[in-house]
Design a protein that fits this description.
The structure holds two protein chains of two kinds. By secondary structure, chain A is of the alpha+beta class. Chain A folds into three domains: 2-82, 3-Layer(aba) Sandwich (Rossmann fold), CATH 3.40.50.20; 91-108 and 183-305, 2-Layer Sandwich (D-amino Acid Aminotransferase, Chain A, domain 1), CATH 3.30.470; 112-180, 2-Layer Sandwich (Dna Ligase, domain 1), CATH 3.30.1490. Chain A has helices at residues 14-30, 44-51, 69-77, 86-93, 95-104, 117-121, 129-136, 162-170, 212-216, 231-247, 281-288, 293-305, and strands at residues 2-7, 34-39, 55-58, 112-116, 140-144, 154-156, 175-180, 185-192, 195-196, 200-204, 221-224, 253-261, 264-271. In chain A, strand 1, helix 1 and strand 2 form a beta-alpha-beta unit. Chain A is globular, with a radius of gyration of 19 Å. The model of chain A has no long low-confidence stretch (mean pLDDT 89). By secondary structure, chain B is an alpha/beta fold. Chain B has two domains: 3-28 and 280-396 and 408-432, Aspartate Aminotransferase, domain 1 (Alpha-Beta Complex), CATH 3.90.1150; 46-274, Aspartate Aminotransferase, domain 2 (3-Layer(aba) Sandwich). Chain B is built from 13 helices and 14 strands. Chain B has helices at residues 3-12, 33-51, 61-73, 88-100, 118-123, 140-152, 176-189, 212-216, 244-258, 263-274, 278-303, 329-338, 368-393, and strands at 19-20, 83-86, 106-111, 127-134, 137-138, 159-162, 192-196, 221-226, 238-241, 309-310, 318-322, 341-342, 344-345, 358-362. Chain B is globular. The chains are: A alpha+beta, B alpha/beta.
Chain lengths: 310, 444
C-alpha cells in the first residue's frame, strides 16, 4: 500500500511530530508499504492529489494536524486517514469544548473555568479571578485550551501566582483553562478501535510534574504498564476513558489522559493524534497488550480503512 | 521550560519565512564568490592530492601561521608549538573539557554564559557555578568570594570559562581592571582561565583591550579562537593555545575525536591569507555589523516597552534584552513564532533556570530591514503581554505585587532592589547589574 505520512508543519510540537513520524515510517517500511513522507506545508494538497496515496497516516501534533484541519482536507480529497474524524479532532483539540461535552455526559473531569483574552482585556474578567479561585480552590492548573505536550501549562499555588501563569498560557492560545489541580496519579488509557489498552502510569522522577521535558526525555519519567491499580480502580479508570473517547466521537485510536485522585478518576483531555515517539505512552500500552510497534501501526492502518461505524 | 522543549521551539525557527534573530550567524554573503572560486581552483590545480589527504593532528604549520597573524592583530604572540588547529572553536571548548574535567569537578563560567558551552559542560558532568556579569563583564569580585567559599569547602575549580570581548550572549566586555585582577587571581590560585575570544576583532566602537592571554603571558590562560566570525563558520576552523602539559592531553583527545581538522579547509585558509586581504575583509565586516547594531538599537528604542532594558555592545554579534520579570521569554518565543520572528530565550544561557525574562538578539545574520521588522514584531508581542498583565493585576489587589514576584528568580530584573549576586549575596549596588546601562555605550 502507498501510505502518506503527514508530519511536521508549523505547530510548536513539530519536533515531537517528526520523531513520531520517523518511527512510523520505519515500521511501515518494515511492513512492506510504500512510504510517502510529507512534511506538511503549502503544497500538501497538491502533493496528495499528485501522489494519490491509498491511506494517510496522520503523525502531526498540535494545531493544524490534531484539530481537524488536515483531516478535513483528507476528507475532501477522499483519502482515508488514521485516527479520529474531523469533528472528534476539533472537540479533542479544544480542552474547554471537550470538558463541556464530558460534563454534559456525566463523565468525571476536574472543575474548571475557561476564558479568552478578550474577557480580561475588555470585560474586566480580572475582577472575577478571586471569585473563580474561591469556586475552584487552590492549587490551580492554568493551561492553553488548545495546545499539547504541556507547553504553557503552569501551576498556581496561590492567587498571586495567577496573573503570571495566565500570561504564560495566553502565549499559546487565545483561550485558557483554569482547572482545579487534582493531587493524584497520572494515568493514560489508549483506545484502539473500541478496545482500551492497559492503563499506563507516568511516574515523574524526583517529584517533578509530568511536563514537556519529562514527556520526551528518556529517563526523566518512569512508566508502569499496566499501572498497579486495584481491579475496581482499573475498571473505573478504563470506563471513564472509554466514555470520554465515545462522547467526543473518537474512532481509530486516541489517548485519554486522566488523574486518579481520592475521589476517583478525572479526565483531563483526549489526544486525537497521540505521540508515537520512543517515550510515548500509546506504544508502551500496546506493548503491554502484546503488540510490537509494527503490529500497532498495521492495526491503526486497518482501522483507517474500515468503513466508519460511528 | 528546559532544553528539549527549547530545542523543539528552535526547530520551528528554521522555517524560511521566519526572521531569525536567534542564530549566531555571521553574514557569509559578503564573501566574494569569485575570490572563493579562484582560491579553491588554485588548491585543485596545485595541491589536490595533499588537500584531499589526512593532515597532522595539531594542524598544518601554514594554518598556524595564519592563526598567529590573527592573534598578532590583537597583540598576542604565542609559540606555534602551543597552538592546535581544531574543528571550530566549539571543538576547542569540548577538548578543553574532555582534557580537564572529571565528573563532579567545579567549572566556573559567566552568568549568562555562551549557550553552546552549556551542553558541553553538562556532557562532562561538571558542577557548573555561574558568576554574575554586569556592564563591565564578569564580576571578578564575586568570583573572588566564590573561590574563597569553594576553598573553605575544600574544592578547587578546574577552570574559569570566560568570553571577555562582546560576550555571547550578553554583549558586554570585561574592563581592563577586571582583566588584570582575573589574571592575578589565576596566578594566586594557580587556576586555569579559558578565554574564548571569537569576536575580538569585530569591534565597532571604543578602544581594544588586551586579551587575558596577553596579560598573563600564556601561563594560566588557555586561549580559544576561531575563523568562524572573521571568515566563515562553514569551514569549521578554530584553534586552542595552551601550555605544554595541557596541550599534550588536548592533542591526544583530538586524535581520539577526529584525527585531524579538515585538510581541505586548512588549505583554503592558507590560500586566502596568502592574498593578504584578510584584515580588509574584517574591516568590511566591522562596517556592516556596526550599521546593523545601530539599526537594532534604534529599533529597540522605538519598539520595546519602557520597562525593557538591553545592553549596548561595542562589538560582537549580540544584544541581550531583559523584560519585566512576569514575562517568560520561552513562552514569548512561542507567541513570536506565530508572527514569524525568533530569538534565543535567556534560559539557554543559564544552567539553573535563571534568565527567564531575558533574550539574546543577533544583529549580524540578517539585513537592516529584517532587523527593524523583526524587532517591531517582537515589540508587538511584548506589548500584548504587558497589556494583558496590567489588565490582570490592576484590578486584583495583592495579586503579583512587586514584592511577591519570584524574588531572586531572575537576576537581570528591572528592579535594582532585587538584584542578587550569583554568589548568593545581595549586590551592593543594583545599578551596575546588567543591563542597566542603556545608553552611552554605543558610541558609533
Amino acid at each position: 500500500m502507498k501510505v502518506a505520512v503527514l508530519k511536521g508543519g508549523r505547530s510548536l510540537e513539530r519536533g515531537v511530530s517528526l520523531r513520531s513520524a520517523a518511527r512510523v515510517e520505519d515500521a511501515l517500511e518494515r511492513l512492506g508499504h510504500q512510504v510517502l513522507a510529507l512534511d506538511v506545508g503549502g503544497d500538501l494538497a497538491e502533493r496528495l492529489i499528485g501522489e494519490s496515496p491509498d491511506v494517510a497516516f496522520v503523525a502531526m501534533h498540535g494545531p493544524g494536524g490534531e484539530d481537524g484541519t488536515a483531516q478535513e482536507l483528507l476528507e475532501i480529497l477522499g483519502i482515508p486517514f488514521t485516527g479520529p474524524g474531523v469533528a472528534a479532532c476539533a472537540r479533542c483539540m479544544d480542552k474547554a469544548l471537550a470538558k463541556h461535552a464530558l460534563r454534559e455526559a456525566g463523565l468525571p473531569t476536574p472543575a474548571w473555568f475557561s476564558f479568552n483574552e478578550t474577557a480580561f482585556r475588555e470585560l474586566g474578567a480580572a475582577d472575577a479571578l478571586g471569585l473563580l479561585a474561591a469556586r475552584i480552590g487552590f492549587p490551580l492548573v492554568i493551561k492553553p485550551s488548545r495546545g499539547g505536550s504541556a507547553l504553557g501549562v503552569r501551576f498556581a499555588a496561590s492567587e498571586r501566582e495567577v496573573p503570571e501563569a495566565l500570561v504564560s498560557a495566553f502565549s499559546y492560545d487565545s483561550q485558557v483553562l483554569v482547572e482545579r489541580y487534582v493531587e493524584g496519579r497520572e494515568l493514560a488509557v489508549s483506545v484502539l478501535g473500541d478496545q482500551p489498552l492497559p492503563v499506563v502510569e507516568a511516574i515523574p522522577a524526583d517529584g517533578d510534574r509530568y511536563d514537556f521535558e519529562a514527556r520526551y526525555e528518556i529517563g526523566r519519567t518512569t512508566f508502569a504498564c499496566p499501572a498497579e491499580l486495584t481491579e475496581a480502580e482499573a475498571e473505573a479508570v478504563t470506563e471513564a476513558a472509554l466514555g470520554a473517547y465515545r462522547v467526543l466521537g473518537c474512532g481509530g485510536f486516541a489517548r485519554v489522559d486522566l488523574m486518579l485522585g481520592p475521589d476517583g478518576p478525572g479526565v483531563l483531555e483526549v489526544n486525537a493524534t497521540p505521540g508515537l515517539t520512543d517515550t510515548s505512552l500509546l506504544p508502551q500500552a500496546a506493548e503491554a497488550a502484546g503488540m510490537v510497534f509494527e503490529q500497532l501501526v498495521e492495526r491503526i492502518l486497518t482501522l483507517a480503512l474500515e468503513p466508519v461505524s460511528v | 521550560m528546559r532544553s528539549s522543549a527549547m530545542r523543539d521551539l528552535m526547530a520551528v525557527t528554521a522555517r524560511p519565512e521566519v526572521i531569525s534573530l536567534a542564530g549566531g550567524l555571521p553574514d557569509t554573503s559578503t564573501f566574494p564568490p569569485k575570490s572563493f572560486a579562484a582560491q579553491m581552483t588554485r588548491i585543485a590545480q596545485q595541491s589536490a592530492a595533499e588537500a584531499l589527504q589526512y593532515g597532522p593532528t595539531e594542524g598544518f604549520e601554514e594554518t598556524k601561521d595564519c592563526i598567529l597573524q590573527v592573534m598578532g592583530a590583537e597583540g598576542m604572540l604565542p609559540d606555534s608549538e602551543d597552538v592546535i588547529v581544531t574543528t571550530g572553536g566549539q571543538q576547542a571548548i569540548d577538548l578543553v573539557c574532555k582534557t580537564l574535567i572529571d565528573p563532579g569537578d567545579v567549572v566556573i563560567c559567566e552568568a549568562p554564559t555562551y549557550p553552546g558551552a552549556v551542553p558541553v559542560f553538562c556532557s562532562y558532568q561538571a558542577d557548573v557555578l555561574q558568576i554574575e556579569c554586569d556592564s563591565d563583564g564578569l564580576r571578578v569580585d564575586a568570583l573572588e568570594r566564590a573561590l574563597e567559599r569553594l576553598a573553605a569547602e575544600g574544592r578547587r575549580p578546574k577552570f574559569v570559562y570566560s568570553v571577555p570581548n562582546f560576550q555571547n550572549p550578553a554583549g558586554v566586555t570585561m574592563s581592563l581592571e577586571r582583566r588584570r585582577r582575573l589574571v592575578e587571581l589565576a596566578r594566586l590560585h594557580e587556576l586555569l582561565v579559558v578565554e574564548d575570544n571569537p569576536y575580538g576583532l569585530l569591534r565597532y566602537s571604543g578602544e581594544p583591550l588586551p586579551p587575558l592571554y596577553q596579560l598573563d603571558g600564556g601561563d594560566y590562560v588557555v586561549y580559544i579562537g576561531t575563523f568562524s566570525k572573521i571568515l566563515s563558520p562553514g569551514i569549521r576552523l578554530g584553534w586552542a593555545v595552551a601550555p605544554p602539559p595541557v596541550m599534550e592531553k588536548i592533542v591526544l583527545g583530538k586524535q581520539a575525536s577526529d584525527l585531524c581538522t579538515s585538510t581541505l579547509t586548512q588549505y583554503f585558509v592558507r590560500e586566502y591569507f596568502a592574498e593578504a586581504r584578510w584584515r580588509q575583509y574584517v574591516e568590511e565586516l566591522v562596517e556592516i555589523y556596526r550599521g546593523r547594531r545601530d539599526v537594532m538599537l534604534a529599533a529597540l528604542r522605538e519598539h520595546f516597552p519602557a520597562q525593557a532594558r538591553w545592553t549596548e555592545p561595542e562589538g560582537g554579534l549580540f544584544i541581550w534584552a531583559t523584560l519585566p520579570d512576569y514575562i517568560d521569554t520561552s513562552d514569548l518565543l512561542a507567541k513570536a513564532l506565530g508572527d514569524d520572528v525568533a530569538f534565543v530565550p535567556g534560559q539557554a544561557a543559564y544552567l539553573d533556570g535563571r534568565g527567564r525574562s531575558s533574550m539574546r538578539l543577533n544583529f549580524s545574520g540578517v539585513g537592516d530591514s529584517e532587523i527593524r521588522e523583526g524587532i517591531r514584531r517582537i515589540g508587538r508581542v511584548i506589548d500584548e503581554q504587558v497589556a494583558l498583565y496590567s489588565a490582570l493585576v490592576d484590578t486584583s489587589p495583592g495579586a503579583a505585587g512587586d514584592e511577591t514576584r519570584n524574588p531572586g528568580q531572575n537576576l537581570f530584573k528591572s528592579r535594582p532592589s532585587d538584584a542578587t549576586g550569583a554568589d548568593g549575596e545581595r549586590t551592593p549596588r543594583g545599578g551596575d547589574v546588567l543591563p542597566f546601562r542603556t545608553s552611552g555605550g554605543a558610541g558609533g
